Amino acid sequence: MRLLALELRRVLMPLVAPFRTAFGVQSEREALLVRATTTEGHGWGECVAQSEPAYSSEFVLGCELVIERHLAPRLFRRPRLAAADVAGALAGVSGHRMAKAALEMAVLDAELRSRGVSLASHLGGVRERVPAGVSLGIQGSVDQLLQVVEDHLERGYRRVKLKIEPGWDAEPVRAVRERFGPDLALQVDGNGAYRRCQADQLLALDDLGLLLIEQPFPEEQVLAHAELAREIRTPVCLDESITSAETADAALQLGACRVVNVKPGRVGGHLEAVRIHDLCQRRDVPVWCGGMLETGLGRAANLALAALPGFTLPGDLSASRRYYHRDVTPPFELEDGCIRVPDGPGLGVEPVPAILDEVTVARRVLEPE
Ligand code: OSB
Ligand code: MG
């Protein structure tokens, strides 16, 4: 097929509650949605970059610019384009994986819709429903945290992830463990906020029965994670540091992690995410699907990925209402602590036009020269 146009929509959606991590507080989600028009029909992509380059170096306006100036022209130039060619066509641009992933997702959706194949079956999914985990931000007090955890357990979430930072770690996490008991599937995420010399604060978490500790040190400190992994019994999991199948392979060889958080946007797309799944499966390394507060479009694509057999831990895949009062797609809901994997062609979901228009703050259409 041939790419005829790319529509970029910047959307702004209020979050149900502010989300605080070690790198900042967010009360709304700014996101970039991409609609690809091709000779075979259209498809949707979502860019997971946030407003600020804090979680990673990419950010929404930067993604718009790199798509317009550097990525879109490379795709328009191709007389024939399949989703499997997108990464290669964009390889001359270094980095910018979240922007690239959004384009690949849109082309892949278009291709699969036209063939009547669901993304889950295309990627190799084997599950119809996946267990839902919830990622809970840093709270104002331990009491508030206990309340928020309780609310989500009542809704049926199967696993809880707590955001931590120096000063908000052993005490709140211990309080949650004591209140909800040893059977609660509990893990923590440091978002790179710890220095190597603060390893003692991480070791203080080691007797709390955590499933894993996610990315305590900054993105580039892979060796620091390998050193910690030798000192701590709790499995170390990497998020920010895993930017490709290549870096995942290296991190595993270095012993920097025993579990991998796979986020398609961070690694340049769903096809690269499947390669990470495959290499981890060959080594018996559990993977789980991370989240970036996606709208229903990105959520649909993440659910498809999480349906693969190596995703043996619950992901940061929550119901739409955990994030948004009104999602751009029909809302994803919890059913007995699980979310159903869409089985329609492509993503299996589409934005509701009226809602999409309401949350759109900027829109432009890119076309071949
Ligand atoms: O580190 O996993 C993270 C959200 C935005 C940026 C980074 C992260 C997160 C989350 C939320 O933890 C996951 C979700 O529910 O989408
Ligand atoms: Mg994380």
Would you give an account of this structure?
It is a single chain. The chain is globular, with a radius of gyration of 20 Å. Helix 1 packs across helix 3. The protein is built from 13 helices and 13 strands. 51% of the residues are buried. It folds into two domains: 131 residues, Enolase-like, domain 1 (2-Layer Sandwich), CATH 3.30.390; 220 residues, Alpha-Beta Barrel (TIM Barrel), CATH 3.20.20. The mean pLDDT is 98. The strands form three sheets. Strands 5-6-7-8-9-10-11 form a seven-stranded parallel β-sheet. The chain has a four-stranded antiparallel β-sheet with strand order 3-2-1-13. The chain has 369 residues and is of the alpha/beta class. The two termini are 18 Å apart. Bound molecules: 2-succinylbenzoate and magnesium ion (MG). Magnesium ion (MG) binds next to loops. 2-succinylbenzoate (OSB) binds next to loops.
Mind telling me the CATH superfamily name of the largest domain? Enolase-like C-terminal domain
Can you list the strand order of the major beta sheet? 5-6-7-8-9-10-11
CATH architecture of the largest domain: Alpha-Beta Barrel
Silhouette: globular
CATH class of the largest domain: Alpha Beta
Radius of gyration, CA atoms, in whole angstroms: 20 Å
Give helix and strand order, one letter per element, not per position: EEEHHHHEEHEHEHEHEHEHEHHEHE
Low-confidence stretches: none
Q: How many DSSP H or I helices?
A: 13
Overall mean pLDDT score?
Answer: 98
How helix-rich are the residues, as a percent range? 25-40%
Which fold name corresponds to the CATH topology of the largest domain?
TIM Barrel
Computed structural class: alpha/beta
Strand content: 15-25%
Largest sheet: 7 strands, parallel
The domain tally reads 2
From the structure provided, what is the oligomeric state, counting identical versus distinct chains?
Answer: single chain
Bound molecules: 2-succinylbenzoate, magnesium ion
Number of strands: 13
